[in-house]
Amino acid sequence: MPWATMRDFLFAKIGPAREAVDGMLARGEFVDQHGHPWSGEEPYRPHTFVWFHRELRDEPPVPGEIVILHQDERIVVIDKPHFLSSIPRGRHVLQSVVVKARQLLDLPELSAAHRLDRGTAGVLLMTTEKRWRAAYHSVFSDPRTQKTYRAIAPIRDDLTFPRRVESRLTKRVGTLQAETLPGTPNAVTDIELLDSRPPWAMYEVTPRTGKTHQIRAHFHSLGLPLAGDPLYPVITTVDVDDFSTPMQLLAHRLSFHDPVDGARREFTSGRCLTWPGTSDGG
Fold it and tell me: What is the value of pTM for the model shown?
Protein backbone atom coordinates (compact mmCIF):
# COMPACT_ATOMS: atom_id res chain seq x y z
CA MET A 1 0.00 0.00 0.00
CA PRO A 2 1.72 3.25 -1.07
CA TRP A 3 0.01 5.61 1.44
CA ALA A 4 -1.01 5.05 5.06
CA THR A 5 -3.90 7.54 5.16
CA MET A 6 -6.14 9.43 2.78
CA ARG A 7 -4.31 12.61 3.88
CA ASP A 8 -1.04 11.11 2.67
CA PHE A 9 -2.71 10.21 -0.61
CA LEU A 10 -4.04 13.75 -1.08
CA PHE A 11 -0.61 15.25 -0.32
CA ALA A 12 0.92 13.08 -3.04
CA LYS A 13 -1.76 13.73 -5.65
CA ILE A 14 -2.43 17.43 -5.23
CA GLY A 15 1.23 18.20 -5.84
CA PRO A 16 2.36 21.85 -5.71
CA ALA A 17 -0.86 22.90 -3.91
CA ARG A 18 -0.47 20.36 -1.07
CA GLU A 19 0.09 23.10 1.51
CA ALA A 20 -3.65 23.76 1.23
CA VAL A 21 -4.70 20.15 1.91
CA ASP A 22 -4.94 20.39 5.71
CA GLY A 23 -7.06 23.53 5.53
CA MET A 24 -9.40 21.95 2.98
CA LEU A 25 -9.71 18.82 5.14
CA ALA A 26 -10.51 20.97 8.21
CA ARG A 27 -13.21 22.79 6.25
CA GLY A 28 -14.73 19.53 4.98
CA GLU A 29 -14.00 20.37 1.35
CA PHE A 30 -12.95 16.84 0.39
CA VAL A 31 -15.98 14.55 0.16
CA ASP A 32 -16.63 10.97 -0.94
CA GLN A 33 -19.12 9.87 -3.60
CA HIS A 34 -21.93 10.15 -1.03
CA GLY A 35 -21.04 13.70 -0.05
CA HIS A 36 -19.53 12.75 3.34
CA PRO A 37 -16.43 14.79 4.26
CA TRP A 38 -13.05 13.10 4.53
CA SER A 39 -11.12 13.83 7.72
CA GLY A 40 -7.88 12.64 6.15
CA GLU A 41 -7.13 10.19 8.95
CA GLU A 42 -9.01 7.35 7.26
CA PRO A 43 -6.80 4.47 6.07
CA TYR A 44 -5.95 4.84 2.39
CA ARG A 45 -8.54 3.13 0.19
CA PRO A 46 -7.66 2.47 -3.46
CA HIS A 47 -10.24 2.93 -6.24
CA THR A 48 -12.13 5.48 -4.16
CA PHE A 49 -13.56 8.77 -5.45
CA VAL A 50 -12.51 12.01 -3.74
CA TRP A 51 -14.44 15.10 -4.80
CA PHE A 52 -13.41 18.71 -4.20
CA HIS A 53 -13.50 22.14 -5.78
CA ARG A 54 -10.21 23.93 -6.37
CA GLU A 55 -9.81 27.56 -7.34
CA LEU A 56 -7.58 27.95 -10.38
CA ARG A 57 -4.61 30.26 -10.09
CA ASP A 58 -3.80 32.84 -12.73
CA GLU A 59 -1.65 31.05 -15.30
CA PRO A 60 0.68 33.17 -17.43
CA PRO A 61 0.45 32.16 -21.11
CA VAL A 62 3.13 29.72 -22.22
CA PRO A 63 5.17 31.18 -25.10
CA GLY A 64 4.58 29.54 -28.44
CA GLU A 65 1.42 28.20 -30.02
CA ILE A 66 0.19 24.66 -30.44
CA VAL A 67 0.43 23.66 -34.11
CA ILE A 68 -1.94 21.16 -35.71
CA LEU A 69 0.12 18.72 -37.78
CA HIS A 70 -2.85 16.52 -38.69
CA GLN A 71 -6.55 16.17 -37.95
CA ASP A 72 -9.10 13.58 -39.04
CA GLU A 73 -12.15 11.82 -37.59
CA ARG A 74 -10.15 9.80 -35.06
CA ILE A 75 -6.95 11.64 -34.20
CA VAL A 76 -5.36 15.06 -33.88
CA VAL A 77 -1.57 15.40 -33.94
CA ILE A 78 -0.16 18.42 -32.11
CA ASP A 79 3.28 20.01 -32.37
CA LYS A 80 3.66 21.05 -28.72
CA PRO A 81 5.84 23.96 -27.56
CA HIS A 82 8.16 23.71 -24.57
CA PHE A 83 6.63 24.42 -21.14
CA LEU A 84 3.06 23.49 -22.14
CA SER A 85 1.70 20.61 -20.09
CA SER A 86 0.19 17.75 -22.11
CA ILE A 87 -2.75 17.32 -19.73
CA PRO A 88 -4.31 19.49 -16.99
CA ARG A 89 -2.29 18.74 -13.88
CA GLY A 90 -1.19 20.46 -10.68
CA ARG A 91 -0.65 24.16 -11.35
CA HIS A 92 -1.07 23.83 -15.11
CA VAL A 93 -4.69 23.48 -16.10
CA LEU A 94 -5.66 26.16 -18.62
CA GLN A 95 -2.09 26.14 -19.95
CA SER A 96 -2.25 22.55 -21.16
CA VAL A 97 -2.55 21.04 -24.62
CA VAL A 98 -5.81 19.26 -23.78
CA VAL A 99 -7.61 22.40 -22.61
CA LYS A 100 -6.24 24.65 -25.35
CA ALA A 101 -6.89 22.16 -28.17
CA ARG A 102 -10.40 21.33 -26.96
CA GLN A 103 -11.25 25.03 -27.12
CA LEU A 104 -9.46 25.63 -30.41
CA LEU A 105 -11.01 22.66 -32.23
CA ASP A 106 -14.35 22.48 -30.37
CA LEU A 107 -13.70 18.83 -29.47
CA PRO A 108 -14.85 18.34 -25.85
CA GLU A 109 -13.69 14.68 -25.72
CA LEU A 110 -10.21 15.35 -27.12
CA SER A 111 -7.56 13.62 -25.00
CA ALA A 112 -3.87 12.75 -25.15
CA ALA A 113 -3.03 9.19 -26.24
CA HIS A 114 0.35 9.53 -24.50
CA ARG A 115 2.25 12.22 -22.63
CA LEU A 116 5.26 14.39 -23.16
CA ASP A 117 6.98 16.02 -20.21
CA ARG A 118 6.02 19.66 -19.83
CA GLY A 119 9.61 20.59 -20.70
CA THR A 120 9.66 18.50 -23.90
CA ALA A 121 8.40 19.95 -27.19
CA GLY A 122 7.19 18.13 -30.27
CA VAL A 123 4.78 15.54 -31.63
CA LEU A 124 1.84 14.62 -29.40
CA LEU A 125 -0.88 12.17 -30.52
CA MET A 126 -4.46 12.86 -29.38
CA THR A 127 -7.81 11.15 -29.92
CA THR A 128 -10.95 13.04 -30.88
CA GLU A 129 -13.51 10.94 -28.96
CA LYS A 130 -13.63 8.50 -26.05
CA ARG A 131 -14.35 5.57 -28.37
CA TRP A 132 -10.89 5.89 -29.98
CA ARG A 133 -8.82 6.21 -26.81
CA ALA A 134 -8.07 2.55 -26.11
CA ALA A 135 -7.12 1.81 -29.72
CA TYR A 136 -4.62 4.66 -30.03
CA HIS A 137 -3.27 4.20 -26.53
CA SER A 138 -2.27 0.69 -27.66
CA VAL A 139 -0.02 2.26 -30.32
CA PHE A 140 2.62 2.84 -27.64
CA SER A 141 2.84 -0.83 -26.71
CA ASP A 142 3.21 -1.88 -30.37
CA PRO A 143 6.86 -2.78 -31.07
CA ARG A 144 6.51 -1.41 -34.62
CA THR A 145 5.90 2.11 -33.28
CA GLN A 146 8.95 4.35 -33.46
CA LYS A 147 9.46 7.57 -31.50
CA THR A 148 12.48 9.62 -32.51
CA TYR A 149 13.75 12.55 -30.48
CA ARG A 150 16.36 15.26 -30.95
CA ALA A 151 18.43 16.42 -27.99
CA ILE A 152 21.25 18.84 -27.29
CA ALA A 153 23.72 17.81 -24.61
CA PRO A 154 27.48 18.07 -24.00
CA ILE A 155 29.93 16.12 -26.15
CA ARG A 156 32.58 13.79 -24.74
CA ASP A 157 35.61 12.74 -26.76
CA ASP A 158 35.83 9.45 -24.90
CA LEU A 159 32.35 8.29 -25.95
CA THR A 160 31.61 6.77 -29.36
CA PHE A 161 28.28 6.82 -31.15
CA PRO A 162 25.95 5.27 -32.08
CA ARG A 163 25.49 3.53 -28.76
CA ARG A 164 22.75 1.79 -26.81
CA VAL A 165 22.07 2.61 -23.15
CA GLU A 166 20.28 0.02 -20.99
CA SER A 167 19.34 0.24 -17.32
CA ARG A 168 16.68 -0.57 -14.79
CA LEU A 169 14.74 2.62 -14.05
CA THR A 170 11.99 3.39 -11.61
CA LYS A 171 10.21 6.66 -10.86
CA ARG A 172 8.77 6.59 -7.35
CA VAL A 173 5.70 8.61 -6.35
CA GLY A 174 6.76 11.84 -4.68
CA THR A 175 10.31 11.86 -6.10
CA LEU A 176 11.42 14.16 -8.90
CA GLN A 177 14.20 12.05 -10.40
CA ALA A 178 14.07 8.52 -11.77
CA GLU A 179 16.31 6.04 -9.98
CA THR A 180 18.67 3.52 -11.53
CA LEU A 181 18.43 0.19 -9.74
CA PRO A 182 20.32 -3.09 -10.02
CA GLY A 183 18.66 -5.84 -11.97
CA THR A 184 17.42 -6.70 -15.43
CA PRO A 185 17.17 -3.60 -17.67
CA ASN A 186 13.68 -2.31 -18.34
CA ALA A 187 14.74 0.84 -20.23
CA VAL A 188 16.60 0.87 -23.56
CA THR A 189 17.65 3.94 -25.56
CA ASP A 190 19.59 4.17 -28.84
CA ILE A 191 21.61 7.37 -29.36
CA GLU A 192 23.32 8.69 -32.50
CA LEU A 193 25.46 11.80 -32.94
CA LEU A 194 24.01 14.18 -35.56
CA ASP A 195 26.13 17.33 -35.23
CA SER A 196 28.60 18.94 -32.86
CA ARG A 197 29.48 22.47 -31.86
CA PRO A 198 31.84 21.88 -28.92
CA PRO A 199 31.21 21.75 -26.07
CA TRP A 200 27.71 20.79 -27.26
CA ALA A 201 26.32 18.20 -29.64
CA MET A 202 22.97 17.35 -31.19
CA TYR A 203 21.83 13.75 -30.88
CA GLU A 204 19.13 11.63 -32.47
CA VAL A 205 17.49 9.53 -29.79
CA THR A 206 15.28 6.45 -30.23
CA PRO A 207 13.82 5.10 -26.99
CA ARG A 208 12.96 1.42 -27.34
CA THR A 209 10.96 1.47 -24.12
CA GLY A 210 8.84 4.15 -22.48
CA LYS A 211 9.91 4.66 -18.89
CA THR A 212 9.34 8.03 -17.20
CA HIS A 213 12.35 10.36 -17.71
CA GLN A 214 14.10 7.60 -19.65
CA ILE A 215 15.95 9.82 -22.13
CA ARG A 216 16.92 12.37 -19.50
CA ALA A 217 18.14 9.69 -17.08
CA HIS A 218 20.12 7.85 -19.76
CA PHE A 219 21.90 10.99 -20.94
CA HIS A 220 22.67 11.79 -17.30
CA SER A 221 24.12 8.27 -16.85
CA LEU A 222 26.56 9.04 -19.68
CA GLY A 223 27.65 12.26 -18.01
CA LEU A 224 25.78 14.23 -20.69
CA PRO A 225 22.83 16.00 -19.00
CA LEU A 226 20.51 17.66 -21.48
CA ALA A 227 20.91 21.40 -21.95
CA GLY A 228 18.35 23.21 -19.80
CA ASP A 229 17.27 20.14 -17.81
CA PRO A 230 16.19 21.33 -14.33
CA LEU A 231 16.23 17.82 -12.80
CA TYR A 232 19.42 16.11 -13.99
CA PRO A 233 22.14 15.94 -12.82
CA VAL A 234 20.86 17.97 -9.84
CA ILE A 235 17.45 19.36 -9.03
CA THR A 236 17.42 23.09 -9.77
CA THR A 237 14.77 25.34 -8.25
CA VAL A 238 13.01 27.06 -11.13
CA ASP A 239 9.86 29.15 -10.79
CA VAL A 240 6.91 27.34 -12.32
CA ASP A 241 6.27 30.30 -14.64
CA ASP A 242 9.89 30.85 -15.68
CA PHE A 243 10.02 30.17 -19.42
CA SER A 244 13.53 31.50 -20.00
CA THR A 245 15.47 28.23 -20.33
CA PRO A 246 13.73 25.50 -22.32
CA MET A 247 15.11 22.01 -22.00
CA GLN A 248 16.64 21.01 -25.33
CA LEU A 249 14.59 17.88 -25.98
CA LEU A 250 12.22 17.51 -28.92
CA ALA A 251 9.87 14.68 -29.84
CA HIS A 252 10.90 14.95 -33.47
CA ARG A 253 9.03 12.15 -35.22
CA LEU A 254 6.32 9.58 -34.46
CA SER A 255 5.55 6.71 -36.82
CA PHE A 256 3.11 3.85 -36.22
CA HIS A 257 0.63 1.48 -37.81
CA ASP A 258 -2.89 2.84 -37.38
CA PRO A 259 -4.76 0.45 -35.05
CA VAL A 260 -8.07 1.07 -36.86
CA ASP A 261 -7.27 0.87 -40.58
CA GLY A 262 -3.71 -0.49 -40.56
CA ALA A 263 -2.26 2.44 -42.53
CA ARG A 264 1.29 3.55 -41.79
CA ARG A 265 1.27 6.98 -40.15
CA GLU A 266 4.24 9.30 -39.73
CA PHE A 267 4.34 12.79 -38.28
CA THR A 268 7.34 15.12 -37.92
CA SER A 269 7.71 18.21 -35.75
CA GLY A 270 8.43 21.51 -37.44
CA ARG A 271 10.24 22.81 -34.36
CA CYS A 272 13.99 23.17 -33.89
CA LEU A 273 16.20 23.05 -30.84
CA THR A 274 18.44 25.97 -29.87
CA TRP A 275 22.18 25.63 -29.36
CA PRO A 276 23.10 26.95 -25.89
CA GLY A 277 24.47 30.45 -25.93
CA THR A 278 22.92 31.27 -29.30
CA SER A 279 19.53 31.96 -30.82
CA ASP A 280 20.27 29.44 -33.55
CA GLY A 281 17.84 26.56 -34.00
CA GLY A 282 19.56 23.48 -35.33
Answer: 0.80
